[in-house]
Structure formats: C-alpha cells, structure tokens
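Researcher: I'm preparing a figure for a lab meeting and need a structural model of a single chain. I don't have an experimental structure, so a prediction will have to do for now. The sequence is pasted below. Please return the structure as tokens so I can convert it later.
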Amino acid sequence: MSSEAAQQHLTLARLAQGPSTWLGPISLLTLVLLPIVFFVPLLTTRLWFFSRADITLAHAAYDLFRIDKFLFGVVVVFGILFPLLKAIMSVLCWYRFDISTVERRLQTLSYIAKLSMLDVMLLAFFVIVFKGVGIGTVQVKYGLYFYALLVMASLFLSLAMAPAARKLLPQQSCTAAISRKK
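Model: Understood. Here is the structure written out token by token.
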C-alpha cells in the first residue's frame, strides 16, 4: 500500500499514542462483553414480581414483557439497543472511521450515549436488591459486578474518547498541511 493510500484512511487507532491507545481495545471488549452480560445471573432472588430465582437482564426483560409492554419497549430500546449501538459506534469511531469525519461521528456517539440507559438499568437492579431485602431474599451474583464494571468501562469511554480525538485532530491537520506543502 502506498503512503498516499495509508494517509487517506487515518483512524484514531493509527494515530493514538500513550494511554489513549487503550481506548480501542476497551471499546472492543465492551462490545464483546455487552451481549454476554444480558445472560449472566445478576441476582438470585425470591420475590413475587420475578418468575425466576436467577435474574438476568434477558429474563428481567421477559418478565417485564409479560407485565407491561410499553415499559418493556422502553427498556429494550434504551437499555439494550442504544447501549449496543453505542458500543458499535465506539468501535467504529476508533478503528474504522476516517480522522476527517470522526469528530462529527463522535458528536453522534455523544447523542447515542445520552439515550443509552445502561447505567440507569444498573441502578434499577441495585434498587431491586435493597428493596427486595424486606419482602424476600436477594443474593448478589457475579454478573452484577460484571455488569457494574461494564457500565463503568462504557462511561469511561464516553468521557475519554472525544478528548483523545481532539488531541489527535490538531496534530493530524498540521501533518496534512505539511504534507500538502511538499
């Protein structure tokens, strides 16, 4: 591949240096682990409003579907689809999108992140844990910790990716200006 062809498709992953090089692998890990976290046990409980003892996000969504279709739709769209879209968009912004368009796409990612309610769902599960203590038994499983770590990684990416890109963009525009003069 010629150097002109390589310059035509510069990505954040190719330009990143130092600690920001970890943003790409973290975003990939988040994308891979997010669908898995929907099926790992978060809680073991004996509460009247759950039909199962082991609670997963997928089972909670199923139970919600039986109780309230509208709320189920809200949870699926904002608690499952938008977080998945956010994870996919993070990976694409880092590895696939050209540096010339990444700033605009990061703005889109920012809007998607605001609609993603993954952290709100995590808080809802903590509310179930503490509220359920008085009316049943609740035991926290490894999946809730796994889920909490995933939410923190997602929040970290939301906060770190745009500033890292802004640091790289002026550097890229200077490099492009110098290469055009030659």
